[in-house]
């Protein structure tokens, strides 16, 4: 995927326009796991929406395999923070949803749903409705639903933010396993520095609004099975510190943006 000098503005309240992203340029290789972090409001979700084709850039281009993205399509799956499952469909029927859109025959759909229920370790829960599942299980169904129609790219907008710490840790491991097994390209947004370093092959740090890529940090933690507790290694701490440093300056800049400026008349009245 190529994000080429993308600018995105929105109409501002009270007239004029508001720039969410500006001159954002970024290449993502096929099969890569990229994590995007940045201060609140810097345009992370806007960037993901552009990759998903849910919105169009004001200027610049977003390309997938050399072709410009002009709308949503089944070559990209999206997983949001809130499960966005259909409450009236069972887990299995939620997973089959995209396959119905692709007109996959019923028997084939059932086989694919079985495969993905197993991949996210929910065998035996296919006939449960969303309200009968825990938050972590619902998010697994959402991931399975996105994977089932076999998109090359998985776009994830803070998918684990609403979960408790233990469920989040175990879903992070599940996601890494699924990524290794399926070879998908994953673009993952998070507020968590630990989560970013744990998951990402590269971590892109965005600047305060308007967002652009400040720096891309390569994460090299060696073989994952070399240690039980990767998060406690000095390498992990060093990467976490680097991302934290980059982010700290941008969070400060974002906070300055949020402080209302003194009004001109107040200054002149002195
Ligand atoms: N449809 C819209 N209309 C107007 N402004 C918008 C719209 N969507 C986003 N924005 C503004 O663009 C900026 C970037 O929003 P975005 O949601 O992409 O940020 P973010 O980095 O994902 O934030 P957070 O980390 O808090 O989730 C915000 O200031 C937001 O208010």
UniProtKB/TrEMBL annotation:
Annotated keywords: ATP-binding, Nucleotide-binding, Transport
Entries under InterPro entries matching the protein: AAA+_ATPase (IPR003593), ABC_transporter-like_ATP-bd (IPR003439), ABC_transporter-like_CS (IPR017871), ABC_transporter_ATP-bind (IPR050166), P-loop_NTPase (IPR027417)
Q: List the GO molecular function terms.
A: ATP binding
Task: Pinpoint the ABC transporter domain residues.
Answer: 1-229
Gene3D superfamilies registered for this protein in UniProt: P-loop containing nucleotide triphosphate hydrolases
Q: Which Pfam families match?
A: ABC_tran (PF00005)
Q: Does the keyword tRNA processing apply?
A: no
Q: What is this protein called?
A: ABC transporter ATP-binding protein
Task: Name the source organism.
Answer: Actinomadura fulvescens
Name the lineage. Answer: Bacteria, Bacillati, Actinomycetota, Actinomycetes, Streptosporangiales
